[in-house]
């Protein structure tokens, strides 16, 4: 007798369409209204790093930075996506220049009466050390250009994972209008390995994954008010969060302008021993004025 | 790493402002002074080592949570005080720079050091965009997140021309470890790959600097050297007021046209293709 096996309903997490599993280009494409977008300075233009080949490192035709312009919920937008799989999403001369140029062009359009939101998909360790000073200079310019644009249109940083957003590019997230994260994402100035290397294993044990996520993880960052929205890893979830913030427009006050609030918070920190992340989350939560999850 | 990190910052701050102590409300690591330079009042800021800091990972002059938010607070104070003044009367903001790096600590990461750094960067850039001339004067180290927090948003960057001055993405020892090279290899690579060099004269070739200033002594500048530095700062203020309040000058300089060719080409192509969508 042939037994009919009941096919179980496929669990939602299998069907959800993971965003993290997409590469940098597919991530950016997934955010736009169908048929509304086009990639700019794409791989066929072959604008690549002049510095990597000089060091025996293979360059990539897009330098790990994908720029797509189009519409999101009908509104003009540009997405700038860093490919975490190429040189750890690091910022070099060319990838940095592409970012800065796209942000500046969005600013010009916005000033001319066509507000153009920017979505930064950041999977990056920061400066590309093979291009050291040009990478750091590019990050300073990225920060400057975000600050220009956010006066006119929202700049939305999405950190989906799994590289995370570290180094100087964490400042880019810090000056953004909104930050969207998943539980798999991390955000911080120094990664665990760098702290362990510079200050020792007692300061930070980079092999302690629970510790890393308790400090840098998306749930903690959103929970303590340093990011705005915690979303599941799904294409629909992230696209809908981005649509929400594109529609919301720029906030009345940006987080990096809330200097007095954070100055008070730091003044009241007990620094005599390491700070318990959960206790800090409890202390800080609810102080912020904007965002969906706060 | 030089043994002098932080000392030169304090020495030059003192030479230029006549002051060398932090304001009572501020951490001892952040020096600020509202003093006359040329014929106008300017805000000077400097981060120095504070061996007694309650945050252990900033004691050698790194930029941490208190430093970032204090810089942001003081710069925003000037921004607000001058908000109704015409651009020509907004006070210059002068960052004296000798910073080792950002703080590499767990306390700092837990409490969101990236936002403290972002807030300071934001304040300096907001002042620049509002029309304040923002001038950075690198007298020692300007490294990594420390420089992004304190100084890299300036309209004009001046630096002393001395082997003890280093502007870089990461200090040698750490960069060598992370890229799995020896410090010697890294230095040799810097002779060949311009943006990797630790030499400030090579940095000048990138076109990001406004001017290099020569001095005999980094730690104890004599009166004529101090006067020369003041004149250079005043000239940079005049130049900054003449130009747009963005960072475009860092691409347009003749040196940048040469050394940042690939980035400039990427930008030109982006401008061309942007209009087609």
Report on this structure.
The complex is a heterodimer of chains A (294) and B (277). Chain A has 294 residues and is of the alpha/beta class. Chain A has a single domain (17-284), classed as Alpha-Beta Complex (2-enoyl-CoA Hydratase, Chain A, domain 1). Chain A has helices at 12-15, 24-29, 93-111, 132-149, 169-174, 192-199, 209-216, 218-223, 235-248, 259-267, 277-284; strands at residues 38-40, 65-72, 75-82, 117-121, 155-159, 178-181, 229-230. In chain A, strands 1-2-3-4-5-6-7 form a seven-stranded mixed β-sheet, sandwiched between helices. The model of chain A is unreliable at 287-294 (pLDDT under 50). Chain B is of the alpha/beta class and 277 residues long. Chain B folds into two domains: 7-245, 2-enoyl-CoA Hydratase, Chain A, domain 1, CATH 3.90.226.10; 247-277, no CATH class. Chain B has helices spanning 7-17, 65-81, 106-110, 113-130, 144-149, 172-178, 183-192, 200-204, 223-242, 249-252, 254-259, 261-274, and strands at 30-37, 40-47, 93-99, 134-143, 156-160, 166-168, 211-213. In chain B, β4 (134-143), α5 (144-149) and β5 (156-160) form a beta-alpha-beta unit. The N and C termini of chain B lie far apart (50 Å). The model of chain B has no long low-confidence stretch (mean pLDDT 95). At the A-B interface, β2, α3, α4, α5 and α6 of A face α2, α3, α4, α5 and α6 of B.
């Amino acid at each position: 007798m042939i037994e009919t096996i009941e096919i179980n309903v496929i669990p939602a997490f299998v069907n959800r369409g993971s965003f993290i599993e997409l590469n940098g280009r597919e991530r950016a494409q997934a955010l736009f209204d169908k048929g509304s977008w086009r990639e700019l300075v794409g791989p066929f233009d072959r604008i690549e790093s002049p510095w990597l080949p000089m060091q025996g490192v293979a360059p990539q035709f897009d330098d790990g930075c994908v720029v797509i312009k189009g519409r999101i919920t009908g509104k003009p937008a540009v997405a700038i996506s860093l490919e975490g799989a190429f040189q750890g999403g690091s910022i070099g001369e060319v990838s940095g220049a592409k970012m800065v140029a796209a942000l500046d062009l969005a600013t010009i359009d916005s000033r001319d009466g066509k507000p153009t939101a920017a979505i930064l998909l950041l999977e990056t360790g920061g400066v590309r050390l093979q291009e050291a000073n040009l990478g750091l200079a590019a990050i300073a310019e990225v920060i400057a250009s975000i600050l220009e644009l956010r006066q006119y249109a929202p700049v939305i940083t999405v950190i989906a994972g799994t590289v995370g957003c570290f180094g100087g590019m964490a400042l880019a997230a810090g000056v953004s209008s909104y930050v969207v994260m998943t539980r798999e994402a991390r955000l911080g100035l120094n990664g665990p390995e760098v702290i362990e290397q510079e200050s020792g294993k007692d300061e930070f044990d980079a092999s302690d994954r629970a510790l890393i996520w308790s400090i840098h993880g998306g749930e903690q960052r959103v929970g303590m008010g340093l990011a705005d929205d915690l979303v599941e890893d799904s294409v629909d979830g992230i696209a809908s969060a981005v649509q929400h913030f594109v529609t919301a427009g720029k906030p009345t006050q940006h987080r990096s302008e809330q200097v007095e609030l954070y100055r008070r918070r730091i003044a009241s920190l007990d620094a005599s021993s390491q700070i318990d992340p959960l206790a800090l989350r409890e202390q800080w939560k609810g102080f912020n004025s904007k965002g969906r999850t706060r | 790493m030089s043994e002098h990190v932080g000392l030169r910052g304090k020495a030059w701050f003192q030479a230029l402002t006549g002051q060398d102590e932090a304001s009572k409300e501020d951490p001892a690591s952040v020096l600020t002074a509202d003093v006359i330079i040329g014929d106008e009042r300017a805000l000077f800021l400097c981060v120095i080592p504070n061996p007694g800091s309650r945050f252990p990972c900033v004691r050698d002059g790194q930029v941490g949570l208190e430093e970032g938010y204090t810089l942001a607070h003081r710069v925003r104070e000037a921004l607000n005080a001058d908000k109704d003044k015409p651009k020509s009367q907004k006070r210059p903001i002068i960052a004296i720079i000798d910073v080792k790096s950002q703080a590499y600590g767990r306390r700092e990461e837990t409490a969101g050091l990236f936002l403290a750094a972002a807030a300071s960067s934001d304040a300096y850039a907001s002042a620049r965009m509002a029309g304040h001339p923002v001038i950075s004067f690198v007298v020692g180290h300007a490294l990594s997140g420390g420089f992004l927090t304190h100084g890299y948003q300036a309209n004009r960057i001046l630096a002393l021309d001395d082997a003890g001055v280093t502007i870089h993405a990461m200090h040698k020892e750490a960069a060598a470890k992370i890229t799995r090279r020896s410090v010697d290899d890294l230095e040799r690579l810097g002779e060949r790959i311009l943006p990797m060099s630790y030499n400030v004269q090579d940095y000048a070739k990138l076109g990001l600097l406004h001017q290099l200033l020569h001095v005999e002594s980094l730690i104890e500048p004599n009166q004529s050297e101090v006067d020369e530095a003041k004149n250079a700062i005043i000239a940079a203020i005049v130049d900054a007021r003449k130009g747009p309040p963005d960072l475009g000058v860092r691409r347009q300089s003749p040196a940048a046209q040469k050394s940042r060719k690939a980035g400039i080409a990427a930008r030109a192509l982006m401008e061309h293709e942007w209009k087609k969508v």
